[in-house]
Design brief:
Largest sheet: none
Radius of gyration: 12 Å
Number of strands: 0
Structural class: mainly alpha
Strand content: under 5%
């Protein structure tokens, strides 16, 4: 998951990224990147769903949980 975060940070630093394309079998990394993409496009509720799916698929990973918490804080939304 750390590599995914580095790629996402780099793409954001370079001015955004195209919508992530689903792999043959979508995984937690896909939903994490999709959540970042959707948030960047202002689709907060859809981003929340994507981050929750990432957490469901990889419950031991802290990154999607942290990103979801940060999204709630940035959006000033209750959980």
């Amino acid at each position: 998951m750390h590599t995914v975060l580095a790629v996402a940070a780099l793409s954001l630093a370079l001015g955004g990224a195209p919508r992530p394309q689903p792999p043959d079998s979508p995984n937690a990394s896909y939903y994490f990147l999709l959540g970042r993409y959707l948030e960047g496009g202002g689709k907060i509720d859809d981003a929340i769903v994507a981050f929750k799916k990432a957490i469901e698929l990889e419950p031991g990973s802290a990154e999607p949980r942290a990103e979801l918490a940060a999204l709630y804080a940035r959006a000033d939304k209750p959980r």
